[in-house]
């Protein structure tokens, strides 16, 4: 490693330490809670662990790694960059994973870009160490208060090869295995993580196959589980041609559950129809409200999961559910149908206000839905059943597709950002932090 690289590493470590010492622990803990709500999904990145002895790895593993960072400055500027961080030796119950695939999900984009207006993005730095800056509108800075001047690692989930292990049997058993991991800070070349947060991928599965093993699969399964637990028999889903929506469609076909898919473009409707979807409604069509009411009547759907959040869609779904239910009403009630209708907003694709006309009686609810609180609610045993189904059907029901696989530096190129930043159907990117890196070796047992 050259001298300038070493200086940067030291600064990086000092920055975090100084931030924590200066009372920024709250920010870091908040980030941890946000992204890793369950005990087994410990949220801290290596640099966030207080009192952890920092010493470089021995043998084949490099002593430093590149990590993508997102920084919101008090001045109202977003800065994306690559930091050089020290690679920690795993503790007894930990493993060191060389990350080779990590998806850029919409929730990652939220942390990556913050409230920045990415149309103002500018590039600087070098090809190997690009820096991207963008302006954050003044009105949006209030929402950034919790992360001001904290350089945050990004990337909720990923997959790679275990190249180092602590002394415990569980950690040693993973050495050389290809694993999927959940725990934040995945846009990094090496990630030290508890062994029990690793999902060993089935034989033949690559890191790219396993990169999206947690967030979207468990959310799609969580929707079906929520539907059942709350007494509904069919569901409505919006932004339904998304990666997650395609998984949900496959689950519902497999489990024979009625699903009404809502998209906003004919191409997306065609895509889902080609995948066997029975009910697809295009929100841009002049006959949308009629089509949606018919599909809801045909399936009996009384629960919906809305990824758009803003605009009129959530209210339109409740309106159509009420219209479908009233078709079978034997007598008029001024309070509307007595059947409870529920919409869960679980994404924020449309950042505008949520608007609705309350014309769907009194038996309705609208609320938020998040994966990690849901997993906590159902408990570890039920969550494990869902995880096992994902592992068993990783390359079929829960397969994800990516438009491109990029290195950390490529992920910070403006033309790439313009594509994956759109959150459009089929445009999801995969980051391979080790793309082009020279270190391909797996150390022998105990090398860490
Ligand atoms: N709450 C949770 O715990 C949780 C967990 C996982 C995922 N999620 C959410 O699940 C959603 C899907 O994630 P993903 O990874 O599957 O996404 P994805 O594959 O990147 O697809 C995004 C989809 O959203 C559509 N879209 C984008 N902007 C839209 C808008 N303004 N109005 C309507 N549709 C829009 C796109 O359709 P077009 O091609 O028409 O633009 C595309 O089909 C995201 O909102 C994500 O945040 C939530």
Counting DSSP E segments of at least 2 residues, the number of strands comes to 20
Low-confidence stretches: 1-58, 439-448
Q: What's the CATH C level of the largest domain?
A: Alpha Beta
**Which sheet architecture does the biggest sheet show?**
7 strands, mixed
What is the average per-residue confidence, as pLDDT, rounded to a whole number? Answer: 87
The kinds of small molecule bound in this structure are: NADP nicotinamide-adenine-dinucleotide phosphate
Rg, Å, rounded: 23 Å
Taken together, the total number of domains comes to: 2
| Shape verdict | globular
Helix content: 25-40%
State the secondary-structure class: alpha/beta
Q: Please state the second-level CATH architecture of the largest domain.
A: Alpha-Beta Complex
Which key phrases capture this entry?
single chain; 448 residues; alpha/beta; Quinone Oxidoreductase, Chain A, domain 1; Rossmann fold; seven-stranded mixed sheet; six-stranded parallel sheet; 32% helix; 24% strand; globular; disordered C terminus; binds NADP nicotinamide-adenine-dinucleotide phosphate
């Amino acid at each position: 490693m050259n001298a300038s690289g070493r200086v940067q590493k030291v600064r990086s470590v000092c920055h975090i330490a100084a931030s924590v010492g200066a009372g920024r622990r709250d920010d870091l803990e908040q980030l941890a809670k946000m992204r890793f709500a369950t005990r087994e999904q410990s949220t801290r990145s290596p640099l966030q662990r207080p009192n952890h002895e920092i010493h470089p790895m021995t043998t084949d593993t490099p002593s430093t790694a590149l990590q993508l960072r997102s920084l919101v400055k008090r001045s109202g500027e977003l800065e994306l960059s690559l930091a050089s961080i020290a690679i920690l030796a795993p503790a007894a119950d930990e493993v060191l994973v060389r990350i080779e695939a990590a998806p850029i999900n919409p929730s990652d984009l939220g942390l990556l870009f913050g409230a920045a207006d990415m149309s103002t993005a500018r590039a600087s730095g070098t090809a190997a160490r690009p820096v991207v800056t963008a302006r954050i509108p003044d009105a949006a800075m209030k929402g950034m208060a919790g992360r001001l001047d904290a350089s945050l690692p990004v990337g909720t989930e990923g997959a790679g090869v275990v190249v180092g292990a602590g002394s415990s049997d569980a950690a040693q058993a993973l050495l050389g295995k290809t694993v999927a991991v959940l725990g934040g800070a995945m846009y990094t070349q090496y990630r030290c993580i508890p062994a029990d947060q690793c999902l060993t991928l089935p034989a033949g599965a690559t890191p790219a196959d396993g990169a999206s093993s947690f967030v979207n699969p468990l959310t799609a399964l969580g929707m079906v589980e929520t539907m059942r637990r709350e007494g509904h028999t069919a569901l409505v889903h919006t932004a339904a041609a998304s990666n997650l929506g395609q998984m949900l469609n496959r689950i519902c076909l497999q489990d024979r559950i009625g699903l009404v898919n809502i998209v906003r473009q004919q191409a997306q409707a065609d895509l889902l129809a080609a995948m066997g979807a029975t009910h697809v409604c295009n929100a841009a069509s002049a006959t949308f409200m009629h089509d949606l009411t018919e599909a809801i009547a045909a399936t009996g759907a009384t629960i919906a999961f809305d990824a758009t959040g803003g605009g009129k869609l959530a209210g339109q779904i409740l309106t159509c559910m009420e219209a479908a239910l009233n078709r079978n009403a034997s007598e008029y009630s001024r309070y509307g149908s007595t059947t409870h209708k529920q919409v869960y907003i679980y994404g924020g694709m449309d950042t505008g206000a949520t608007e609705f006309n309350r014309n769907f009686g009194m038996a309705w609810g609208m609320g938020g839905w998040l994966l990690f609180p849901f997993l906590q609610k159902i408990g570890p045993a039920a969550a494990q059943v869902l995880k096992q189904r994902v592992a068993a059907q990783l390359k079929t029901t829960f397969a994800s597709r990516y438009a491109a696989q990029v290195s950390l530096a490529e992920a910070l190129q403006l033309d790439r950002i313009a594509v994956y930043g759109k959150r459009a159907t089929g445009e999801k990117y995969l980051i391979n932090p080790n793309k082009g890196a020279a270190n391909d070796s797996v150390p022998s047992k105990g090398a860490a």
